[in-house]
């Protein structure tokens, strides 16, 4: 997983793919490659940030809370903050909304 994460960051860097707000990419960019690649990288970075236990607890909470319904990026952020007991605004701003490559924990 770590190698795939590093490969994704290398690809995103080499192809200047950090300029899109993937938390709300808009209709024209909804299926853009960087939405998926940055999203996957952000999930792995979140795992590094809060740890396996909190990520898996948050994933379970997410599924039980929003099963068969819709939710927003902000809802996901709130669930992960609740599960981890951490304030993650800066993390999500950097990984989802930022236009430069975030640092890695």
TrEMBL record:
Keywords: Aminopeptidase, Hydrolase, Protease. Residues 28-95 form the Peptidase M1 membrane alanine aminopeptidase domain. It holds the Pfam family Peptidase_M1. SUPFAM superfamilies: Metalloproteases ('zincins'), catalytic domain. InterPro entries: Peptidase_M1_dom, Peptidase_M4/M1_CTD_sf. Coiled coil: none annotated. Signal peptide: none annotated. GO terms for molecular function: aminopeptidase activity. This is Aminopeptidase N. The lineage of its organism: Bacteria, Bacillati, Actinomycetota, Actinomycetes, Micrococcales.
């Amino acid at each position: 997983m770590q190698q795939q994460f590093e490969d994704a960051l290398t690809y995103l860097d080499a192809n200047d793919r950090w300029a899109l707000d993937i938390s709300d990419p808009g209709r024209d960019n909804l299926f853009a490659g960087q939405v998926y690649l940055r999203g996957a990288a952000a999930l792995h970075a979140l795992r590094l940030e809060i740890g396996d236990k909190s990520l898996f607890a948050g994933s379970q909470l997410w599924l039980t809370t929003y099963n068969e319904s819709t939710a927003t990026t902000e809802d996901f952020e709130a669930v992960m903050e609740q599960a981890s007991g951490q304030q993650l605004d800066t993390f999500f701003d950097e990984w989802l909304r930022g236009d430069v490559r975030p640092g890695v924990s």
